[in-house]
């Protein structure tokens, strides 16, 4: 399985965990919610859905009344099929959510993972965010070293493009720092309060986003390494 196919399967399972959908709804959600899938077609989506059904992670159900399905068939149109996550599919998606390997830090993978952080355990979110930050810091160091070696041979416009790329990576690193600090603050709030009581109002596991206003957040799916 290619990396992009794996990311698509992950995203489809994640969206269907929220609610059953038919193909059109899925494609619309993938396009609007996950920018990395803006250019993909039904010719990509439906083979993915068939694979997930064959693996037992999805089931197909009629999406319309029997008479409407018959009319569609007689007219040569595709009858609407609703895809629903099975218990095995939910378990498989939860296994994928818990994965924190290096592939989860790459540009497209990270964007898809981040889109489902609301369903992800705090400790897993932290490992993915810290891994992404480390990867970008390594990328930034390489970009700086390359610029030092080549800047004398670059014209002004190419040099400006190089600087723009570095600034994009630096912005994402700052954004990641904010997220990591907020995740840590949320974890600390879950600790036992003075006197031994647990602060029930701070036990939510979805408090990882920075709360201050005016922060500019780069698109995590933006591939800044050219």
From TrEMBL:
Q: In this entry, which stretches build a coiled coil?
A: 126-160
Q: Which InterPro entries match?
A: Metal_resp_DNA-bind_regulator, Tscrpt_reg_PadR_N, WH-like_DNA-bd_sf, WH_DNA-bd_sf
Q: Which UniProt keywords apply?
A: Coiled coil
Transcription regulator PadR N-terminal domain residues: 12-95
**Superkingdom in the source lineage:** Bacteria
**What organism does this protein naturally occur in?**
Streptomyces solincola
**Designated name of the protein:** PadR family transcriptional regulator
| PANTHER family in the cross-refs | CONSERVED PROTEIN, PADR-FAMILY TRANSCRIPTIONAL REGULATOR
Question: Region labeled Disordered — which residues?
Answer: 183-226
């Amino acid at each position: 399985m290619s990396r992009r196919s794996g990311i698509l399967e992950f995203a489809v399972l994640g969206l269907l965990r929220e609610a059953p959908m038919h193909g059109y709804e899925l494609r619309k959600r993938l396009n609007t919610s996950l920018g990395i899938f803006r250019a993909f077609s039904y010719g990509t989506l439906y083979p993915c859905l068939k694979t997930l059904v064959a693996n037992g992670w999805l089931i197909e159900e009629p999406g319309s009344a029997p008479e409407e399905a018959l009319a569609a068939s007689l007219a040569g149109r595709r009858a609407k099929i609703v895809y629903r996550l099975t218990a095995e599919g939910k378990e498989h998606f939860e296994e994928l959510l818990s994965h924190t390997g290096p592939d989860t830090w790459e540009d497209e993978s990270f964007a898809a993972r981040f889109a489902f952080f609301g369903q992800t355990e705090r400790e897993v979110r932290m490992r993915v965010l810290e891994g992404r930050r480390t990867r970008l810091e390594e990328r930034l160091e390489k970009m700086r070293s390359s610029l030092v070696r080549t800047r004398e041979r670059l014209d002004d416009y190419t040099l400006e493009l190089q600087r723009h790329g570095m600034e994009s990576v630096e912005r994402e690193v700052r954004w990641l720092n904010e997220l990591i600090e907020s995740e840590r603050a949320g974890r600390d709030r879950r600790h036992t309060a003075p006197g031994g009581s647990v602060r029930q109002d701070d036990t939510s596991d979805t408090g990882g986003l920075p709360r201050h206003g005016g922060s500019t957040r780069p698109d995590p799916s933006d591939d800044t390494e050219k």
